[in-house]
Write the structure tokens for this entry.
Amino acid sequence: MMDKETDIKMDVVVPEDVEKEKEELPAEEVAEKAASERDKKRFFYSKKVCRFCTGQIKMEEVNYKNVELLRRYIMPSGKIVPRRITGTCAKHQRILAGEIKKARILALLPFLAR
């Protein structure tokens, strides 16, 4: 068994400027620094608006033949981009997904990226 009196001391070299930072910061600054780090973690998103409802893109343009438009709504891996990312409403997302699936069947868009 080991004696309780025996301690192993390790020589750790700590840079001087790190020790100075620990000593020089008052409690108020430490609290402010922690609060600012907490604020950086908060994200505020602006409300996304459906481009089809606002008229920026006409629904006549959404067609399985319009590959350039449909490519904006698929990921590089080939997946359909979800509503929460694109901002489209549920009605137009369903139409868009249907047209993407038609274009995939006709081999205008990929099912998977390789």
Q: What stands out?
A: Residues 90-105 form the longest helix (16 residues). Residues 51-105 form a domain with the 30s Ribosomal Protein S18 fold (CATH 4.10.640.10).
